[in-house]
Amino acid sequence: MQDKLVNEHLILGVDPGTLFMGYALLHTVGKQADIVCFDVLDVHRDEDQYARLQKEFFFLQELIDRHHPTVLAIESQFVDKNPQTMIKIVHAQGVAIAAALSRDVPVVEYSPMKVKMAITGNGHATKLQVADMLQRMLRIPDDKMPRKLDATDALGIAYCHFLQLGLPLAGKGPKSWSDFARRKGLVEEGATTPNQQLLAALGKKK
After folding, report:
1. Does domain 8-171 have CATH number 3.30.420.10?
2. pLDDT per residue over 165-190, tens digit each?
3. Among the four 1, 9, 100, 112, which has the fewest Cβ within 10 Å?
């Protein structure tokens, strides 16, 4: 018998950037999570930083108007050694948040470390490791993987929010990256820490 209450969400994940903005839409119904789209908006050819921010703002508004996401999940502010870089990223974050709020879409923020921990079990994982685990768990074909990691970063942010909703992974799949690795026989004996297990898993063939 089908549950009367079905949790359905359309999560817009955004990885803010001043030259490239990653975005992803993740549709979830109950235990199922499906990718609607994920890609990168390239604005690096515009020399004026405010023109780039304007393009990102209007792009996100159009994306929201087309798909009507239920929430925006975005990477929160991070600390960078270069103050100017940090300020520019904060501007991009503000533009994305403003675009969502202008369409009455609620906003949630996740730190980069929290996203990496949710996807890989290691808060210090690399972008490549995050992308690899997302490809495995969401069964993304090689030819559908984008070249720029900003797109998979955005997908990771959206997927992190999916996990925070208290929903298990798709179908009867693994409940975490480590569970996935164990089921696939990717965790080598003697790898005890999350980092060791992750490196062992990624070092083996898919």
Report:
1. yes
2. 874 444 444 445 555 555 545 444 45
3. 1
